[in-house]
Amino acid sequence: MNTKWSSAAAITISGLLVASAASAQQRDERQNAGDTSDSLAPATHSVELTVGTGYAQGFGKIASAQPSLTDIGQAGGAVQVGVGYRIIPQLTLGVYGAGAMFGRGDQVDPSANLYSAAAGVQADWHFLPGGHQLDPWVSLGSGWRGYWNHADQGTTSLQGLELAKLQIGLDYRIDQAIAISPVIGADLSTFFTQSTPTATAFTNISSPNVNTFVFAGLQGRFDVPTGGESSKVASR
User: Fold this and answer.
1) Residue 103 neighbours by CB under 8 Å, 6+ apart
2) Mind listing the pLDDT tens digit for each residue in 19-55?
3) CA nearest 169: which of 113, 127, 204?
4) Is 32 exposed, middle or buried (0-12, 13-18, 19+ CB in 10 A)?
5) Neighbouring residues of 32: CB distance < 8 A, sequence distance ≥ 6
6) Strand 134-151 to 178-196 pairing
7) Model confidence over 18-28: pLDDT tens digits?
């Protein structure tokens, strides 16, 4: 796995674990002090921040006359971030961004570095937002996706849409404001235009196919109250 990706993943996971341990310690201290307040109250009217990291891989052909994503790139890693607003305990609306690095496939130059990025809007639905330590959730989003093959000869760039992005997870709520969750997901994407080292201007891709990118990893969720009793925070 790429060294840069390994370092980014290690930093992200370490940060999540440190935050989890600190929050758990604070909860124990409150309980020992006799604080019996509901630490798992549902979140409402709070800003929600998410950060996750894990395995990523693309599958499917770019177009009928082009190689598949597995021919270009093998399994790699991704980092995902999100910012949203918890309108009601069950629903968060927001935006997301993701970046990934992949191993080299059989049909790329040995000097190639392979990247992908995505960004868009999403809606998250929580099934047990309050009073439960485990809170299953589902997220649906849509937006832009790009893919780059950067080699010594130049860069090939693919640009298109992430038509639909579905993720599911199970939050383990450590405290009101922090949760850790395993996450799995997949999207449906298609690339409409490309540029190559020999033709830097973008051209349309003939007969583009729908392909998919999958993700599996660990995510942390942090809720920030916006003021007032109604904005007691909880994590999904």
Assistant:
1) 1, 2, 73, 74, 75, 76, 114
2) 545 545 555 555 555 444 456 888 888 999 999 999 9
3) 127
4) exposed
5) none
6) unpaired
7) 554 554 555 55
